[in-house]
Structure formats: structure tokens, C-alpha cells
TrEMBL record:
UniProt xrefs under Pfam families: Hint_2
Domain Hedgehog/Intein (Hint): residue ranges: 38-169
Protein name as it appears in the record: Hedgehog/Intein (Hint) domain-containing protein
InterPro entries in alphabetical order: Hedgehog/Intein_dom, Hint_dom_sf
């Protein structure tokens, strides 16, 4: 179910979010699920340079962590109402200025996955990289839940496979491939990134807090657009010039 519907905002005539209706038509049975997405104003590294996520179109290319430039296959846009009494678990998450080289406060939807790199993930998973929902990062370097306003515009990007993209300087945001909503077997297909939630994600974040790890989230934007600071994962070399 799309974010707008989960928060109760619906079109007066059709009873559903116009953005959701558009997305359903484009995806033909596919859905981008969860309370993820990037709020309007969030910059994304694209073949046009840093672009606000709301300016991106299907067919544009976005810089990914593992696969250089990849084409945006689908975009879901929604207007979300955030009532004052919204429970903390459903509120957007505020990343204070500087927590990931961001030059201003940045908000993420609570279920938006973010890629972290740390020793705890390597010990537990055999891979130093893992995806955790933004809401699980509360308490790390001042990250907390917050309300950026009464209504926000949310954009969710989809590619032909799971991708992690560069946003707002060097933050790494997970964009899972949409799944067939009527095909349970599709939901069991393996994904490219280990996504942690619940106790596993909390343990990982507690390790980051205990170690005061200030390099786990994102990379320095000074290293973009030429090359990301993070080295490519084994088997997934980045192009020498991803913006070529």
C-alpha cells in the first residue's frame, strides 16, 4: 500500500491517491511498498548533476553505488499529510545538518532504507554494508523523528534492479525493485542488499552509537561527481567517470 494511502490522504473523486493511480498504471501490477521515499528538495546525483528528486523523470540516469549510472524505470509521487498527533514511529526522520555531509537538515520517510558501512555489519553478515530503515537510526549522531510540515511531497524512485543511490551530498539511499503484488513467489526473490530491521537493525545502530562511528553513513560530496569516496564492492566496479 502506498504511503499516501497509509497516512489517510485520498483523492476526493476516486478515493485513492492520484500519484498512486498513476504509478499503478505505469507499473502494471507492481507496487513500491512501505513508508519509504525522498521528500521534495532532496538532491539526487544524476547525469545532469545534483537534481532535486521532484525534477527527475523516467528515463533519467542516476548515480548508483554499485552499478554506475542507471536509468530510472519508474517514479511514484505522493502527497502525504502529517497530523500533529502522528506516532513517532510513523513520522519522518530528521538528519541534522552535517550528520552525513548534508549542508542543511534533511528529512527521510521512516521506512526509507539507508546503506551503512561498519565493522558490526561485517561481523554479523560477512559484508560491511547493510541497509537499515531511517527510523532505526534515531539516536545516532542526533538523528530523531520530526515533522517538517503538515503536508510533504514524497518521491520514490524505482530501477530495474535493487539499487543504492547518492542523495544530498553523499548519503546512500536504498531503492528496492518493485515486487509483483499478486505473485508471492516474487516476494521471495533474493535482493542485492541485506536489509535489517527490528532487533538486528537496533543492534547495528547501537554499535554505531557506542563506537561513535562518524563515517558509517554516507560519503564526502567533495568526492563526487568524479568518483565516490567509498570503494566499489567486490564484483561491482564503478566506471572511471560515472558522469561521462
Amino acid at each position: 500500500m502506498g504511503t499516501a494511502l497509509m497516512f489517510g490522504w485520498k483523492d476526493k473523486d476516486t478515493g485513492e491517491s492520484p500519484a498512486m493511480a498513476e504509478s499503478m498504471a505505469v507499473l502494471d501490477g507492481l507496487l513500491i511498498t512501505g513508508q519509504g521515499g525522498l521528500l521534495a528538495g532532496t538532491s539526487v546525483a544524476s547525469n545532469f548533476g545534483w537534481q532535486p528528486v521532484e525534477a527527475l523523470k523516467v528515463g533519467d540516469k542516476v548515480l548508483t553505488f554499485d552499478h554506475a549510472m542507471q536509468t530510472v524505470a519508474d517514479i511514484q509521487r505522493e502527497t502525504v499529510t502529517l497530523p500533529a498527533g502522528l506516532p513517532a514511529a510513523l513520522r519522518p526522520v530528521r538528519l541534522p545538518e552535517g550528520v552525513c555531509h548534508n549542508r542543511r537538515d534533511l528529512w527521510m520517510m521512516p521506512d526509507q532504507g539507508l546503506l551503512v558501512e561498519c565493522e558490526a555489519a561485517l561481523d554479523a553478515l560477512g559484508d560491511p554494508y547493510a541497509v537499515v530503515p531511517a527510523r532505526m537510526l534515531r539516536g545516532y549522531r542526533g538523528i530523531t523523528d520530526d515533522l517538517p510540515g503538515e503536508r510533504v511531497e514524497v518521491t520514490t524512485l524505482a530501477f530495474h534492479q535493487d539499487e543504492v543511490i547518492y542523495v544530498e551530498g553523499g548519503l546512500l539511499a536504498h531503492c528496492p525493485v518493485p515486487r509483483q503484488v499478486l505473485d508471492g513467489a516474487d516476494l521471495l526473490q533474493p535482493t542485492l542488499y541485506d536489509r535489517l530491521d527490528g532487533a538486528a537493525a537496533r543492534f547495528l545502530v547501537n554499535c554505531l552509537i557506542d563506537d561513535d562511528d562518524d563515517h558509517a553513513l554516507g560519503c564526502d560530496p567533495a568526492d563526487l561527481p568524479n568518483l565516490p569516496m567509498r570503494p566499489p564492492r567486490p564484483g561491482h566496479p564503478l566506471a572511471a567517470n560515472p558522469f561521462a
